[in-house]
Structure formats: C-alpha cells, structure tokens
Design goal:
Layout (H helix, E strand, L loop, with lengths): L12 E7 L5 H6 L13 H9 L6 E7 L5 E7 L11
Parallel strand pairs: 1-2
Antiparallel strand pairs: 2-3
C-alpha cells in the first residue's frame, strides 16, 4: 500500500515585493544575521499564504517596486516557518 503524502518536502519559490525606499535588499544585507520579518501585508490571501504556506528553505526572489529600474534585485532563503504578523 503506498504511503500517504502528508506534507510537501518540495522547495517552493516566492516573489516578495518591497519598495526600495522602505526596505531594500541592501537593508536586508545589513540586518543582523541578514534576516528580518515580513510585515505590513494587508491583502488577506497573501497574508494567509505567508503565514500558512511559506516554509523554511523556500527561496525568494526579492523584487523592488516603485524604483528605477523595477525588477528582481536579489534572492533570499526563508529561515523560519510562517507565523501571524505581529503588526496586523
């Protein structure tokens, strides 16, 4: 009898958007341990995805919006399971 797959072990890839003048990839590089939390998301679907689906080890494309040029400026790796936004 085949084993029932209870949780995915596949790495996922995410696009995280931040305005460069708010929190840039350089701010992330300068942060202690080069980590931070992702807060301020008010879209319910995205908030739930961050909390429930983003897993340790997933990879992130870091996208700068409202800047010139627009686009992916770096990559990051998720270092902690999702949790509720403490600013919500």
């Amino acid at each position: 009898m085949p084993k029932k797959k209870t949780e995915s072990t596949e790495r996922r890839y995410w696009l995280f958007k931040s305005e460069a003048d708010c929190f840039s990839i350089d701010d992330l590089k300068a942060a202690p341990k080069k980590t931070t939390f992702w807060d301020g998301v008010r879209n319910y679907q995205v908030r739930n995805m961050l909390r429930d689906e983003v897993k340790k080890g997933d990879l992130v494309l870091y996208y700068h919006s409202n800047s010139k040029p627009l686009g992916v400026v770096g990559t990051a790796e998720v270092v902690k399971e999702g949790y509720p936004d403490h600013t919500a």
